[in-house]
Amino acid sequence: MKRVWEKILVWLGLLLQFALIFIYGVIAPFMNDDSFKSEIKDSIKEEVSSGKLSNADINSIVSHLNEWIIYLIGLAIIVAAVALITALIINKLPKTAGVIFILLAIAAVLSLNFIATLFWLIAGIMLIVRRNKQTKRKARA
């Protein structure tokens, strides 16, 4: 079985995952810039005008943004690497690849890539559910 639609969904998800890694890589250097941090603090203060957050809380949120972006980049790279390897074994082990893509969909949610999650979840379900075509042989008399 060719499994064309599964491959299309998987490769679109991979393309989106690599785009996300690129975007995170572009954003990461700005997380250490003081002017960028002050703009984020100001926007948080404007959004939360109720006064429930103190300046210490806002400073804590902004300081943790750098840690989160590094976490997201690492997770996105790991997910992309596993997805790339699994994409190469779709024809040989479709059921195993389907289970792996469903697990990758869960991990992609954690890396904030919701569209790739949808693609990989659909592809994983299709890989598990669809059966290989059986060739029918006629008995020769």
Automatic annotation (TrEMBL):
Cited InterPro entries: DUF4064
Key word Membrane present: yes
Membrane-spanning residues: 12-31, 68-90, 96-129
Entry keyword Transmembrane: yes
Keyword entries, A-Z: Membrane, Transmembrane, Transmembrane helix
Domain DUF4064: 2-108
Designated name of the protein: DUF4064 domain-containing protein
Species of origin: Staphylococcus argensis
Lineage of the organism: Bacteria, Bacillati, Bacillota, Bacilli, Bacillales
